[in-house]
Each structure stands twice: as C-alpha cells, then as structure tokens.
Amino acid sequence: MDGSELLRARYGIDIPGAEVPDAIAPLLDRRVTRRYTEQPIPDSLLDALLAAAQSAPVKSDLQQYSVVVMRDKPRIKQIADWIGTMDWIATAPVFLVWCGDMRRGQRLCDIHNMPHANNNLDTFLNTAVDCSLAMGQFMAAAEAVGLGSCPISYVRSHIERVSPLLGLPAGVYPVAGLSIGWPQFRRPVAMRLPPSVVIHRERYDDSQMPEQVAAYDERRRARDPVAASGLKNNDVYPQRDGVGWSENAARQLSVPERFGFAAYLKTKGFDLA
Ligand SMILES: Cc1cc2nc3c(=O)[nH]c(=O)nc-3n(C[C@H](O)[C@H](O)[C@H](O)COP(=O)(O)O)c2cc1C
Predict the structure, then answer these.
(1) Residue 18 lies in a domain
(2) DSSP category for residue 60
(3) Is the CB of 89 under 6 A from ligand 1?
(4) Predicted pLDDT of residue 224
(5) Does 191 reside within a domain?
(6) How confident is the model at residue 226 (pLDDT cuts 50, 70, 90)?
(7) Which of 150, 186, 252 gets mutated to test ligand 1 (max ligand atoms within 8 A of its CB)?
(8) Is the pLDDT of residue 228 over 80?
(9) Which residues contact 204 (CB under 8 A, 6 or more apart)?
(10) Could you list the residue range(s) of the whole structural domain that residue 60 is in?
C-alpha cells in the first residue's frame, strides 16, 4: 500500500497534502492482534524488544516503571480465566504486565538517607506516562519484526488477584497487560477520528466536533457496522442495530468503570493528592 492508501485505510477519507515517508508507513498500518500461533518467541528477540521499550523517553530520567514478563502458560491462562471474556489471551506465548513504579524511587531515597517527598498525583501520572511510552515503543518494535500484540486494561479489573499473582509490592501497580505472539491473522485497520477532531492548530477548538463525529460515525458504519456483540453495556441499554461509534462510546462512558481504582491505589501506598 502506498501512503495515500494507508491514510485512507486509517481515516476513511483522503488527507490532502499529507505525504507518508516509507520509514513511518508501517506505523500507519499497525493494528492489535488478538490470536496467536503456537510459534514461540525466542528470549534473544524478546530481550531486544524490551531494550527498544527501555529506549523510550522517561520523565527526568527517573525511569519509574517495571515490566513483569510471563511465559508460564498456566499463569497466563489464569489471567485469561479471571477476565473471562478474552480467552484468546491464553494463546499468547508471552504476556507482559506493564507497571507504574514509585517504589524504586522510594527505595533510592532510602538508600541515600533522604525522604521521598513526591508521593502525589504528579508522580502517579509520571509513572503511568513512562510506562505507556515504553509499552508503545515495545509494540512498535514487535510489529516491525512481524509480531502482534494487544494491550489489556482488563488486568486492572482483576487487580486484587493479578497483583498478588505477580507479587507486586506497595508503590507498584499494573497500567496494562500486553499479550504478544505471532499473528494467526491480521485484523483490518481500525478507522480513526479525522485529524480535524483530534489535531488542534495553535488553539484548542472543538466547535465543529459534533458534525465531524457524525460523519465519522457514518464512515465507520459503512465500512464495519458495530456488531451486536461489540455493543457496550447491553444490560443497561437496548441491543439494537445501527449504533454508531460515538453512541457506543457514550454507552461505555455512561457507566462507571473500575470505580475502586483510586481506593485500590491508596491501599498500595499512593497518596494521589
Ligand atoms: C491502554 C489500552 C488498553 C486496552 N485494553 C484492551 C483489553 O483489555 N482488551 C482488548 O481486547 N483490547 C484492549 N485494547 C486494544 C484496543 O481495543 C484497540 O487498540 C482499539 O480497539 C483500536 O484498535 P487498533 O489498536 O487495532 O487500532 C487496549 C488498548 C489500550 C491502548
């Protein structure tokens, strides 16, 4: 596919004037992979991908995240079983759990006989950002060698069980899981909101958002209607045909998700103030 075809696949519209250099074309073509072959991932390759992840930028060079590598099939299946609706996770030869980590900084202060005076919301955000950038870079590196992956926020829905399974101490919490493996097949590219909705020039301006999102809903509906199985919160709202992306987003966002997360973080020593 050339650059304009990649842009059309990503947005469902032409993006006049955009030119896609060959070097970034693979980034436009990425998508998650939710089923894997039995082919293993050698440690030598995994270690290189993790080095690519660790090459991501880190706030103040503090490096406030950790990654737990899981290769033990029954333990990966245990997480898939707890989640219950994503059995394909068990087909992954490797499962990573990306964690925000305030603990290491606290220990460094201890080692150097200083107080840790940054147990606050800013540090929580920094740990999550460091972790997410590293995970993103890992995913791009994995995709570059033909591996597929899928982030799994659902590890946070079962945090009380996942956290002890991994032995996560106070100050360390999972941001997301990441299943990895050689793809059984490649899913279609998911269409994104148009740049006019997401990219603001000089000043934030969402005055045209409702009309632009309505047009996006139409484009998505034409390419890939939301299947009944993909509708969010079917127990709260009627299951019906023709629901668009934005309505489905509203169906999801109108019901509290992981309501107890802040309370959980407090039990793990995060102040969040
Ligand atoms: C932080 C994060 C958490 C996610 N959690 C899940 C998950 O628990 N289960 C899942 O199937 N997909 C999960 N995804 C994948 C998204 O559903 C997917 O990226 C999105 O539908 C767009 O598809 P694409 O990545 O192929 O473009 C997650 C993605 C991110 C970034």
Answers:
(1) yes
(2) G
(3) no
(4) 86
(5) no
(6) confident
(7) 150
(8) no
(9) none
(10) 31-185
Number of domains into which the chain is organized:
3
- Band the pLDDT of 21: cuts 50, 70, 90: very high
Q: Among residues 222, 199, 236, which one has the least CA distance to residue 15?
A: 199
Tell me whether residue 130 is in a domain.
Answer: yes
Same domain for 225 and 164: no
The response to whether residue 190 sits with its C-beta less than 6 Å from ligand 1 reads: yes
Q: Is there a single domain that holds both residue 166 and residue 217?
A: no
Query: Of 131, 153, 191, which is best to mutate to test ligand 1, by the most ligand atoms within 8 angstroms of its C-beta?
Result: 153
The residues that bridge with 149 in the sheet, in sequence order, are: 180
Tens of pLDDT, residues 58-111: 999 999 999 999 999 999 999 999 999 999 999 999 999 999 999 999 999 999
Closest C-alpha residue for ligand 1 atom 9: 152
Q: Does residue 141 lie within any of the structural domains?
A: yes
Same domain, yes or no, for 51 and 170? yes
In angstroms, rounded to a whole number, what is the distance separating the alpha carbons of residues 156 and 33? 20
Q: What is the CATH number of the domain that holds 43?
A: 3.40.109.10
Structure tokens at 55: 């090459």
